[in-house]
Design goal:
There is one protein chain. The strands form six sheets. Strands 10-11-15-14 form a four-stranded mixed β-sheet. The protein has a three-stranded mixed β-sheet with strand order 1-9-8. A two-stranded antiparallel ribbon has the order 2-7. By secondary structure, it is of the alpha+beta class. 28% of the residues lie in helices and 25% in strands. A hairpin with a 5-residue loop joins strand 4 and strand 5. Helix 2 packs antiparallel against helix 3. The protein is built from ten helices and 15 strands. The protein starts with a helix and ends with a helix.
């Protein structure tokens, strides 16, 4: 059973970013593989704490987790997936560098070529596009594998050499109170070197080229403002032989002129003629799925709420789960009336003993 991330780190759900970081540092130091060699349980605790920190230290992922839990992370591609301690060292290299004074124990970075950086963009949707889902054509600048060298950074016929400093391991070891491994400064952790004369001239040996990426992004029905979608493998190209980063798409939703949204529920205010509110009747009301007919009961008070079950927004995380549509009925006050309508209203006011503004000279005077 998946444990609650706040429970894993031993912090409250209201914990600040600094409190979360402090709790993770404490657990990481305790369960670090270099301090617990051969201890499988300690390694699992190390990975579990790192997964919790990876989510709770990111504002967007934390928002999704607080609202939808582990299922919400999986649905958006946010679920941490650390296969070994090397993945953790790669992601949190700077933090481990702080802990261990520069090297991060077994890794400020993972051995070998570096994975490509993630790319973040924003996409703005209309209200109806967000609730019903849509497809969006997007463009963004990124790097991709060089067409000339197919991403390996080498000229035709050239090959890399094993790094002489680290002997191809990509890391060098410093001996002290604790054995500390750091990325090799000569090959930058790649374990190989390429002579300047052997580098691809088009990409200068980087294996990457800048270009504009075009993608058709499928937006699931029910996304809300501030949600971030993850498209794996569509970020920056990595070092030669390394995978690309991911594309993160931040969703912005324009407000609607009629409908309001609260989670998966929608709200609308509907003006109803006074006679209908008093005597009752059938009226047409707007929903995000089209007009629906409802019955107004006699003697309905202004502000009455009517709920249409299952007429709200689809839940993007739970199949077949749809929110409700709430209608607030208010008395409609016409902006202008005919003389006959005014006479009828005055007779009604007189019958009910209600005070109304005088007609004629006095009305003009007080206007």
């Amino acid at each position: 059973m998946e444990r609650d991330f706040y429970e894993v780190l031993g912090v409250a759900k209201t914990a600040s970013a600094q409190e979360i970081k402090k709790a993770y540092r404490k657990l990481a130091m305790k369960h670090h593989p270099d301090r617990n060699p051969g201890d499988a349980e300690a390694e699992e605790r190390f990975k579990e704490a790192s997964a919790a920190y990876e989510v709770l230290s990111d504002d967007n992922k934390r928002q999704v987790y607080d609202q939808y839990g582990h299922a919400g992370l999986r649905g958006r591609g946010f679920e941490p997936n650390f296969t070994d301690a090397g993945d953790i060292f790669s992601m949190f290299g700077d933090l481990f560098g702080e802990m261990f004074g520069g090297g991060g124990g077994r890794g400020g970075r993972r051995r070998g070529p570096r994975r490509g950086s993630n790319v973040e963009i924003q996409v703005t949707l209309d209200f109806m596009e967000a609730v019903h889902g849509c497809s969006k054509d997007i463009e963004y600048a990124t790097s991709s594998p060089c067409d000339t060298c197919d991403g390996d950074g080498l000229k035709d016929g050239a090959s890399p050499s094993t790094c002489g400093l680290c002997q191809g391991r990509g890391r060098v070891v410093q001996q002290g109170i604790m054995m500390i491994s750091t990325p090799c400064p000569a090959c930058r952790g790649q374990g190989r070197t390429v002579a300047a004369t052997d580098r691809c001239t088009d990409c200068r040996g980087t294996g990457r080229q800048r270009e504009t990426q075009k993608q058709t992004l499928g937006i699931p029905a029910g996304v809300s403002h501030g949600i971030q979608l993850n498209v794996r493998g569509k970020g920056e190209a990595g070092d030669p032989g390394a995978p690309p980063g991911d594309l993160y798409v931040l969703i912005r939703v324009r407000p609607h002129e009629v409908f309001k949204r609260d989670g998966n529920d929608t709200w609308v205010e509907v003006p109803v003629p006074y006679p209908t509110m008093v005597l009752g009747g059938e009226i047409q009301v707007p929903t995000i799925h089209g007009e629906k007919s409802i019955t107004v009961k006699p003697n309905t008070v202004s502000g009455k709420l009517v709920t249409l079950r299952g007429e709200g927004v689809p839940d993007p995380q739970r199949r077949n789960r749809v929110g409700d549509h709430r209608i607030q009925l208010v008395v409609e006050v016409p902006q202008s009336i005919s003389d006959d309508e005014e006479d009828l209203l005055r007779k009604l006011a007189e019958h009910q003993g209600a005070g109304v503004r005088d007609k004629g000279f006095w009305a003009k005077l007080f206007s």
